[in-house]
Write a structure and sequence with these properties.
single chain; elongated; mainly alpha
Length: 90
């Protein structure tokens, strides 16, 4: 297996991982920011208050982004399995 093929495979795997984590991390970031602003405005400094909205928002994001995430994972896996002969040099 050539070093270029391994590097390309690793870069593609990292890109797919980034794409799959982006919806949940983005939603958690936005909800955390909104809850922090609400806590600062009301001076309610309860640490556990931010976890419940984040959990619900990330769960909702997974429901809506789940089919797209599954499609991305299936495309990557199919492409990976089909490229095995090329990677092995056959």
């Amino acid at each position: 297996m050539s070093p270029e093929a391994v590097a390309s495979l690793g870069q593609h795997a990292l890109w797919v991982m980034f794409l799959l984590s982006l919806p949940m991390l983005g939603v958690a970031l936005v909800v955390g920011l909104l809850v922090s602003l609400l806590q600062a405005a009301t001076q309610l400094n309860e640490m556990t208050l931010s976890f419940v909205p984040k959990i619900f928002a990330v769960g909702l994001a997974m429901v809506f982004a789940g089919p797209w995430m599954l499609h991305v994972m299936m495309d990557y896996t199919t492409q990976l399995l089909l490229s095995i002969p090329q990677l092995l040099g056959s």
